[in-house]
Amino acid sequence: MNINLNDTALVAFTQDLVRIPSLSGEEGPAVERVVAEMHRLGFDEVFVDENGSAVGIVNGARPGPTILLDAHIDTVGIAPGSTWTRDPFGAVVEDGYIYGRGAADMKGALAAMVYAVGSLDRSALAGRAVVSATVMEEVLEGIALESVMERVRPDFVVIGEATQLNLNRGGRGRAEIHLETLGVPAHSSSPHLGVNAVHEMIKLIHIVESTPLDSHPLLGPALLALTDIISDPYPAYSVTPSRCRVTYDRRTLPGETPESVLGAILNQPEAQGLRCNAVIAQGEHRTYTGKVLQAQKFFPAWEFAEEHPFVQMALRGLRTARLNPQLRAYRFCTNAASSAGKLGAPTVGFGPAAEEDAHVVDERLSIAELTAAARGYAGIVQEALRPS
To answer: Which pLDDT value is given to residue 267?
Structure first.
């Protein structure tokens, strides 16, 4: 491999990013730190787009394709009542790990991408390598990435979410479903005169959770999880509820659509007698730049064949970097829902840490995996931009 990677500086940069809180919609200071490091490493072009995502470009010596490496810079918060044994924003290094919120999900991968691309020998590249630090992924997967892709028009995309240094060629999608039942209000001293919307919802929940879901040989089973339930009026004073709404988090498989997901609920014979409706939720979030992002909360699943040219290209690059990846798939939703699921761009996933390391107390990242990931990203880029 033709790369001059400074592992010590990479670790220090990762620590810097972990020390900067960057909840969705509050990523500005972390983006500034990424921009500064891209400039320091000599990226040819660095900018912040209208959503607030940082983008850095390195140009090879000759024309060729564009490869985009993407990592989101926003994180989830610290759950109320959770007890960390280390400062979530201290970026403490102990026993070969960096501890802190975002270390695994996914500031380590972002730092590794920046250093990998910034350390490449440009005279050996034909094309462009782009790194994006995208915002708002934790609330709207892929929407900010779509803006980056529209601007840089990549031929290939690498998503840096955790794979334990394996190569992922697919991933589940996600849908947020709102179910609503309608009742007839009555005084709570005479409930038989009305129709209790909560009782109707209990029936609907039983129908929904009794409906079998498909499975996929690579991505595993589709999943359905009830995440909240709300009745109206609330609080209710001596009146039975006339409306009840639940939210389901539905993990989807390739080929599923909003219509098929909702139809699987509404078309059940048992649901025909209920006054109910089901919709895919609409998301609206304001970025730290003031831009409002809006999207239906249906983020498609995706899959590329093992023999797909980019999958094989990425495998060769990782093996050149002295890694021995297995081919796998994400069981959760990532920005690839847009790059691959919506836009059809050849996409793979590769990153340090495991899926189970995200959003946990005492989140941590192995330094050995961090530095190996940087070598892996460099290997993929060099293979993708190899002069013919």
So the answer is: 87
> Which of 177, 184, 203 minimizes the C-alpha distance to 268?
203
> Is 280 strand, coil or helix?
strand
1: pLDDT confidence band, cut at 50, 70 and 90? low
- For the cut 90, the answer to whether the pLDDT of residue 2 exceeds it is no
DSSP 3-state of 353: coil
Contact 129, 383 (CB under 8 A): no
Burial degree of 237 (CB within 10 A; 0-12, 13-18, 19+): exposed
Q: Give residue 99's pLDDT.
A: 98
In degrees and rounded to multiples of 5, residue 72 shows phi and psi of -80, 145
Contact 182, 243 (CB under 8 A): yes
3-state SS, one letter per residue, for 128-159: EEEEEEECCCCCCCCHHHHHHHHHHCCCEEEE
Token duo for residue 100 = 């802190």
Element containing residue 283 per DSSP (H, E)? strand 282-286
Distance CA 347, CA 350 (A): 10
Backbone angles phi, psi at 58, to 5 degrees: -120, 125
Question: Which are the contacts of 131, defined by CB distance < 8 A and separation ≥ 6?
Answer: 38, 43, 55, 56, 68, 69, 70, 71, 110, 113, 114, 117
Contact between residue 362 and residue 114 where contact means Cβ atoms under 8 Å apart? no
Q: What is the pLDDT of residues 146-167, one digit of tens each?
A: 999 999 999 999 999 999 999 9
**Measured at the alpha carbon of residue 346, what is the angle toward residues 302 and 381, in degrees to the nearest 5?**
130
- What ranges in 20-55 are assigned the alpha helix state H? 28-40
Return the pLDDT at 269: 83
Closest CA relative to residue 337, chosen from 174, 217, 131, 130: 174
How far apart, in Å, are the Cα atoms of 229 and each of 47, 61, 179, 192, 210? 42, 57, 10, 23, 18
Q: How many residues does the chain have?
A: 388
Given this model, what pLDDT does residue 52 score?
A: 98
- pTM assigned to the model: 0.94
